[in-house]
Amino acid sequence: MTVRVRFAPSPTGFLHLGGLRTALYNFLFAQQNKGSFILRIEDTDRKRIVPGAVEAIERVLTKLQLIPKESPGNGGDYGPYFQSQRLDLYRSNLDTLLKNGNAYACFCSPTRLDLIRKDAIRRREVPKYDNKCRNLSRKQVEEKIRQGLSHCYRFVLRSEESNFRDLVYGPYDYNPAAHEGDPVIMKEDGYPTYHFANVVDDHLMDISHVLRGEEWLISTPKHILMYKAFGWTPPRYAHLPLILNKDGSKLSKRQDDLRVESLFSKGFYPLTILNFVTKIGGGFDEKLDDLVSLDELVDKFNLTSLNSSSCRLDMNRLDLINQLEIKRRAKYPLEEKMLIDELKDIVLKRLLDNKIDKRVLSEEYVRRVIHWASSESRIVTLKDLASSDFSYLWEPPTETSFNSLHGFNIKGRSLDDLISIIGSSNEGFDRSELTKQLKAFAKKENIPFPVVMKFLRGSLSNLKEGPSVGEMIDVLGIKETVSRLSKVKKYLDSNAIQDSRNT
User: Fold this and answer.
1) DSSP 8-state code for residue 83
2) Per-residue confidence of the chain (503 residues) as pLDDT tens digits?
3) Rg of the Cα atoms in the chain
4) C-beta separation of 80 from 86 below 8 A
5) 205 vs 80: CA distance, rounded Å
6) By three-state DSSP, how is residue 106 classified?
7) How far apart are CA 289 and CA 411, in angstroms?
8) Which of 285, 287, 290, 284 has its CA nearest to residue 272?
9) For residue 64, which phi and psi values (nearest 5 degrees)?
10) For residue 253, which phi and psi values (nearest 5 degrees)?
11) CB 225 within 8 A of CB 199
């Protein structure tokens, strides 16, 4: 069997993690079986279409390297790939069902349908259509159409065998005719409903397997009845477990923090997001490392290993994986260079209004910052390095912040000695050895060691807490550290002279 699978999003919102999981697993299954991954846009709900959503979906898939073999952009032998461009195909297949008695025109008004719904609710029953128009004669139908009465078309649900074996959930038995009214398959505006277009397109596109969200599981028996009505063989089905928010609520397209493009904009990388999605619901025989390549995901994917129970998002894991991805990228020269350029751009944009010394954006220094921040797990994304907590990396403290250093009583000769101790160290110094020297300095000057460290932290960063002083000196470098301490000394000395004059 030639494997052909499709990802068929509706452009009524932007791609979020739930939709991405569906796209990824379809892609992995197709690649593993040397088949075709197809992108089809189900845009028949014209009122809810979001402008730019289709372009955004294709842009995201490209960035994630989930490239469809056939799509609206790439074309293919089974197009068009927009459902709105396939209306003649739906109409001709509707005619087939009308002729063989498996569909009929329905003239019930919205008012009548609303009354049926309200009556069912009043009786505490599940609302469903009463199939009234199913019994209209051909003559009655022709007369109503001649009168120009608005109408849709419905599929005849019959109490026939519609059970199937899902590749994830196993045997599934549900009789739609016993619980539902005949569903609309063609709306008054001439556009098909999801159920009808889905079946027609999957058949005409030779789709072999349908991998989609668990919410469509209950609709599958209805789809199988449509296949039977046409005399077609249905594809194999695999329904992916429901993804829930951490609080147990369902995901929504309106949750901006779960939009894939939103995650990109926050600084999360494509491989990070792909690996995060694989942690939701299984699909692999063995436990994966937190970060593996797309090729490895293809190799290790196993559809039958998917969980059938719902799963919850743990966004903290996304942070952890992105930290690992930054570390991985920093190991390879080409990707490291991309990180360096990315961080330079971030810093320049964030500090655009400030007078930044372009020398701090030297490739050597930026590289050192990235390796320090990633090895110490100080950041989740590179953008964190342009936050206020790390502004000292790019801009030294200003003189206005030096006022707070007066109370430490480290000035004059004592400060000269402190600068000398640090200045005598080499780049790449031993932190423990420097700590010993600073402790000796504190003892000699009869200053508590924590006070010395607070003074250094304030002089170098104007922070009260954060990375250790040793880390700060290591990443800033000895030369920059001495430069900043010298500016502090100059300020304190000048203030001491001014104070003596005033007295």
Assistant:
1) G
2) 899 999 999 998 889 999 999 999 999 999 999 999 999 999 988 888 889 999 999 999 999 999 999 999 999 999 999 999 999 999 999 999 999 999 999 999 999 999 999 999 999 999 999 999 999 999 999 999 999 999 999 999 999 889 999 999 999 999 999 999 999 999 999 999 999 999 999 999 999 999 999 999 999 999 999 999 999 999 999 999 988 888 778 776 666 678 999 999 999 999 999 999 998 878 887 777 889 999 999 999 999 888 888 888 888 999 999 999 999 999 999 999 999 999 999 998 887 656 667 778 899 999 999 999 999 899 999 999 999 999 999 999 988 888 888 778 888 899 999 999 999 988 777 889 999 999 999 999 999 999 999 999 999 999 988 899 999 999 999 999 999 999 999 998 887 555 544 45
3) 33
4) yes
5) 10
6) strand
7) 52
8) 290
9) -85, 0
10) -65, -15
11) no
Amino acid type, 16: H
> Secondary structure of 162-175 in the HEC alphabet?
CCEEECCCEEECCC
Is the whole-model pTM more than 0.85? Answer: yes
**Which sign, positive or negative, has the C-alpha torsion 155, 159, 161, 167?**
positive
Cα(290)–Cα(152) distance, integer angstroms? 51
Q: What is the maximal distance between C-alpha atoms in the chain? A: 113
Taking alpha carbons only, the member of 277, 287, 93 closest to residue 199 is 93
Helices (DSSP H) in 331-430: which residue ranges?
333-350, 363-375, 412-423
Q: Is the peptide bond prior to 80 cis by the omega test (within 30 degrees of 0)?
A: yes
